[in-house]
Amino acid sequence: MSEEANIFGRYNISNAQGYEITICYMQNITQGSSFWQTQNTFYLHLPLLSMQLALMIFISRLLMLILKPLGQPRFVAEVIAGILIGPSCFSSTIVSKTFFPFESVMLLETFANLGLNYYMFLVGLEMDLSAVRNMSKKSLSIGIATILIPLFAGAGLYFLPMHTKGPASSTQPLGAVFWAITLSITSFPDLARVLSHFKLLHTDLGRIGLTTSILSDITAWVLLLVAIVTFNNHKFLGTAIPTLIFLMICWYVLRPGIAWMIRQTENKGGKFNETHIYYVTCGVAACGLVTDACGSHSMIGGFMLGLIIPKGELAIKIMESSEEFVNGIMLPSFIMLNGIRTNLRDLPHIANLVVVSLITIAATSLKILTSVIICFFFGMSPSDGLALGTLMNTKGVFALIVLNEGRGLKAMDSTTMSIITFTILFMTAMVAPILLLTNKTTRHARQYKQRTIQRSNPNTEFRILTCIHSLGNLSGIINLLEVSNSTRKSPIIVFAVHLVEYMGRASAMMIVQEPGKKNYASNQPPSRERAESDQIFNAFESYRDRHHTVAVQPLTVVSPYTTMHEDIFQFTEDRHVAVILIPFHKQATVAGGLQCDNHPIREVNQNLLLNSPCSVGILVDRGLRFFNPLESSSHARIKLRVAMLFVGGFDNQEALSYAYRIAGTPGVTLTVVRFLPNKDVEQNVNNEYDGEGNLVSTSESEIEKELDDDFINELRFKSKFDESITYLEKLLNNGEELLESIRRKYNDFDLYIVGRGLEMKSPLAIGLSELIDNPELGPIGDALVSSAFTSHASVLVVQQPARDNGLHRPMGNFRQKKWASPILNPE
């Protein structure tokens, strides 16, 4: 059924066969003709709308809490809430009669259309068309297949005999168009949230899904626009030509004008404020008015305005100021209206449930089977094809928009719309369970392999991921990479990650930058974040250009600080990264040392250290500089003096492995100083006694010492003919003597490399652990950055993967091992 208000108090009711009747309703006025003096206060339009929205928001929020453990998106909870409010549940109750009288539909529909206009504006605002222009062959093929096959197959499903009553000819052929468009849609904003929830945004699967969803939405928009202007009372020329002219004016005139004004504002150093946001929000209503006057839907104008606004600071401020109100207050009115028009309770009496079930299963399987087949041709696993096809079934508000437009054009009746609404709900609800199943199966089948510097084959590529939060952290990381010894046998692959805080966007994501290309159109001004990313990536590209054995992959992580480390972890696992390099976030110099502030990026660093699947290196940069004598004519400083302070433990072994790699760089000298406790001190610490003073056992630190001896001996054997490496040993009694020894004999180095070693059993570190100020640096690292005699030198603190992830730390390449088959043990 389709309601259309003619005048106040009167509606025309029409069905799919074109029969129309006029229904009038009565208002009781107590005195005079004042609008505010009705007998029932709920008949007043504004309080009634407020109560309707309050009920809808309350039920949807309650369902969101219930469905959150199941991983269901917000869209599923809101659609179910709308169906519960409608005739499927409350049709004969006092709730329906009080809150949803028939005459309230006019105001609710008006408010819903306004909400749709602003919602589609936000969708266009966060959609980046450059992703479609730069689609790979694989993404393009998958996108085309997952659009065309459901498009044609969905049109065929529409003609199946769904009704138990009425002739088959009662089905309007025009409805097949809207069914086909609905089944081909993959909602971009809802898919982005699902990918963010499952931490798949930065994976190949996530990137293919996002670009495909953008292509799907744009294709569906074009098809819907054509359908509206074609079948809107058969006024094709009178509707299509004005709409097309307006869209061309927006793209070729309004878009460059907005970009120019934004560029002028940023060049003058100005900032965007509420006035700019007011102008834009008024422009949304104006564009909606123009497209509505042209005979199309008002939301087309809002969507177009969102597309042409450059993605930058202004777009972020608009999202921050309006996203919650639009998605939380205005949009639920449309979903509630859709629920009022959906009647699932009477569906068993008027529809063939067997056919409906077959339609639902077939519609759900279309994209899944298509993705599995296409992914097979591109060499992807069946589980990835299943996951990708499931993601392509993610529906959203746009699917409901298409259905309601078809209903408004009398292309389908209420029964047909109820069936497809149920199908959309089922398809979207199945996304989370299937993804959980595929991810669990994949993780169970894949054996986790620790990736450390020790385990890295010296004759294969060395993969490093660097995390840069600001430009101040850039030079130290690049200078450290300069001395990381990139060779033809062991080239360095650098993943240069710029960390950007999540600010008002629909979802977090990881953007892969293409070298030499920008992620925005040339006529759009870059935001401050993009300008900073350009400077960071240009610096890394310059580093790459200086070395023929270095490859750089720029990345931008846009994520909340609380979950940013999880995105980084997933990427390191997918790319087999050996070490993550992060700068020590410092704020001020205190008593010759550094004191870390409470910036949220520090929490990111701590999470990286706590749960990282690979090694982590924290660099305290104090002006680290290096001039390679083979590449520079400067003789002022041609050497870099590096000291590795070895106290013992797995972290120190990992730090020594990195130091040994650095020592291979021409112009670098490495001094390895192993600090050992005196025998009396070691025996007192290691031995465990019972209550009577009898020796019971020795602690595990004695076993660690044996491993350290094997590791050191192997290193000394490999480097005995290398004049750039010097090995020293020093016997001490406690941590105070260790610091005094560094102050007196080892205070003239440019770079100190140490292990974090919070779990070290050495008596030399126990005393230092009690005075630690920066736990992320460990006892030795914290002592170095807090001491005045090493205030001139940079410090690199290295940690192996954390033990509390349930994995055993490897022994490394330097330890003697039994022979193992390279076929069964490729590592």
From TrEMBL:
Keywords: Ion transport, Membrane, Potassium, Potassium transport, Transmembrane, Transmembrane helix, Transport. It comes from Xanthoceras sorbifolium. It holds the Pfam family CHX17_2nd. Residues 492-624 form the Cation/H(+) antiporter central domain. It is a multi-pass membrane protein. Belongs to the monovalent cation:proton antiporter 2 (CPA2) transporter (TC 2.A.37) family. CHX (TC 2.A.37.4) subfamily. Its main location: membrane. It comes from the Eukaryota. The chain crosses the membrane at residues 42-63, 75-95, 107-127, 139-160, 176-196, 208-230, 236-254, 350-379, 385-403, 415-437. This is Cation/H+ exchanger domain-containing protein. The keyword Membrane applies. Residues 640-800 form the Cation/H(+) antiporter C-terminal domain. It is found in: Membrane. Signal peptide: none annotated. Residues 58-435 form the Cation/H+ exchanger transmembrane domain.
